[in-house]
Design a protein that fits this description.
It contains seven helices and ten strands. It is of the alpha/beta class and 253 residues long.
Length: 253
């Protein structure tokens, strides 16, 4: 049998490679397989679940050995299907993403980039899986529409004399707020930019900031800023040098 994915995606590069060779070009189509870490882990964990076990029952080394066992089998399936389709690759150069020479090349590139100040290490928001306890690629996250609700929360001025009511769809992250933002052109709030509010419940001081990202037509025109739990708020926090306060742990609680 053949996986429908290979039947769809293999002929396209094969046609281009063969056509270019026929027109006098030197063409290398390099065959290779990817270790697909999280996807592979999920498959093996499902196999273990069918046996009434988990990766924690096996321990790190035994689980890793089980994963490598499945990888070897899966790689054979992938390459055998490519051979059945007659893909015009150079099998003498077959590669796997975790081959030592490839891993060494990747490490060398990253070290070079770091030494040339072209990459740096910093904190950033990631999609996190509380079951796997690891970060996920954005490509592995399934997005979809959901019916939400707009909540209104009153933030009093620290020096007394009124409050600002913010509108939010994420009240559960309120304790991670480090600012309240308004649009710089919103005349309703022009006189309060720079003042300080008090975060309800815990009393943290929050500055009122002006940022072009805020939509004055959304809710009350004032939004809470939670840099640790929203990508837009994260960028706003970077622009205004706001603290990042995380209120959701690795278990998603």
């Amino acid at each position: 049998w053949l996986h429908i994915g290979y039947a769809l995606n293999q002929p396209l590069p094969d046609v281009v490679a063969r056509w270019k060779r026929m027109t006098g070009h030197d063409v290398l189509w390099l065959p290779g397989t990817d270790h697909a870490g999280i996807a592979t882990q999920n498959v093996v964990e499902k196999q273990l679940a069918a046996e009434g076990k988990s990766r924690h029952d096996l321990g790190r080394e035994a689980f890793e050995a089980r994963v490598w066992e499945w990888v070897a089998k899966s790689r054979g399936t992938i390459t055998s299907q490519m051979r059945k389709l007659g893909s015009s690759v150079d099998w003498s150069r077959e590669r796997f993403t975790l081959d030592e020479n490839l891993s060494r090349a990747v490490r060398r590139v990253f070290v070079t980039l770091y030494e040339d100040d072209l990459i740096y290490r910093a904190k950033y928001l990631v999609s996190w899986c509380p079951r796997c306890r690891t970060a996920l690629s954005d490509l592995e996250v399934v997005h979809g529409p959901a019916r939400g609700k707009l909540y209104h929360i009153r933030y009093p001025y620290t020096d007394g004399g009124g409050a600002i009511t913010v509108a939010t769809t994420r009240p559960e992250t309120m304790l991670g707020d480090t600012a309240v933002a308004v649009h710089p052109g919103d005349e309703r709030y022009a006189a309060v930019v720079g003042r300080t509010l008090t975060l309800p419940v815990i009393g943290r001081a929050l500055p009122v900031i002006a940022d072009d990202f805020v939509d004055p037509a959304f809710g009350t025109g004032a939004v809470k800023v939670t840099p640790a739990h929203d990508p837009n708020d994260f960028e706003m926090g970077e622009r205004h040098r706001l603290e990042r306060v995380s209120v959701i742990d690795e278990d998603g609680r």
